[in-house]
Amino acid sequence: MSEESHPEIRDAVRALCKGFAGDYWRALDRERTYPTEFVKALTDAGFLAVLIPEEFGGSGLGISEAAAILGEIHQSGGNGGACHAQMYIMGTVLRHGSDDQKREILPKIAAGELRLQAFGVTEPTSGTDTSRIRTTAEKDGDDYVITGQKVWTSRAEHSDLMLVLARTSPRDDGGDDGAKPHDGMSVFIIDMQEAQKSGLTIKPLRAMINHATTEIFFDNLRVSARNMVGEEGKGFRYLLDGLNAERILISAEAIGDARWFIEKACNYSNERIVFDRPIGQNQGIQFPIARAHAQTEAADLMLKQAIKLFDAGKPCGPQANMAKLLAADASWAAADMCLQTHGGFGFAEEYDIERKFRETRLFQVAPISTNLILSYIAEHVLGLPRSF
Ligand SMILES: Cc1cc2nc3c(=O)[nH]c(=O)nc-3n(C[C@H](O)[C@H](O)[C@H](O)COP(=O)(O)OP(=O)(O)OC[C@H]3O[C@@H](n4cnc5c(N)ncnc54)[C@H](O)[C@@H]3O)c2cc1C
To answer: Is any atom of ligand 1 closer than 6 Å to the C-beta of 120?
Structure first.
């Protein structure tokens, strides 16, 4: 097995996760309820504040430690999707917010008093082409008035604040004025309690997995101009700035899932006796497990490379994207292998495999779909012609 980074952090996370075993996650999955106790335990232990600098009350650690935490949650059979964004959404405020916003928000997140773990970007009609979002924020005196709709905004019901991307000027296809389709969007901080009194509606969206995801409707929601993050019109750039961190952390989760599947498959194929011998004695069973292990460890090497560059402050777009691609593929291959290894029992709820199988499938689609990663590698890394 590969050498694990941050063994002390991983031990602590593993110990915490022992208190939240398969039956805990199964019960939540059945009812599609939020893992409140688990998230509280992670918050109280300070794990969700690792990326917040010490001057704002966090532990000021790197993406490497954050990846170890999320990876270990998934390797232990849990799911970080309920709260992983609490780690990294604040990065938009940290990098681009005003001093007042940082002083107001970051220490409270670090202390576990405030949750900022929802970011509304995706809309029903725009798809991955974010430049086509239709949610608008119109300036009106000292305020902006937001109108539109978001979909798949996860954790919105469990967040005190959310960030939302809205158009502050119409889409411009580009031309003589030098404008680009992705200019003219801005990021706002929304106070969820206040907003729900005056123009924001959240509707839970029942999905294939328990992900606390929602649709959000903005009906002339008035927010102060002080709630804008950074400069007007630069929201998409701010979004891009956070993507490498997100790619890295999601890769860590996918690799954690893959390792969980591989361990389950190894244990079962050592124990399950069919035709008077363990099924793991058959190479037809062994080889898919060995292949999944090799794929997972290769993805982990790419992830380590991305992490090293990220924590050194160096560009890491290609590595972060390739890690996400390889890790999502490895976890999906491992999930399929694990289900097959368990035969009929793979479908039984109590084995947790069917739940993890559904959960890990998400990484092929969100937060970014596989095709879009391939497109990035083809065009931005290999210099192939742009297709859109
Ligand atoms: C459980 C869940 C949680 C989510 N949480 C959030 C969240 O918190 N906040 C948020 O903003 N969004 C969230 N999302 C949305 C997610 O980021 C998008 O679903 C994802 O980016 C894909 O976008 P889309 O669904 O609009 O697919 P589309 O853009 O409509 O694409 C559909 C398919 O076509 C492919 N495709 C599109 N264009 C091309 C092309 N040019 N070449 C090749 N293939 C192409 C895509 O790869 C995809 O497979 C979540 C989604 C899910 C399912």
So the answer is: yes
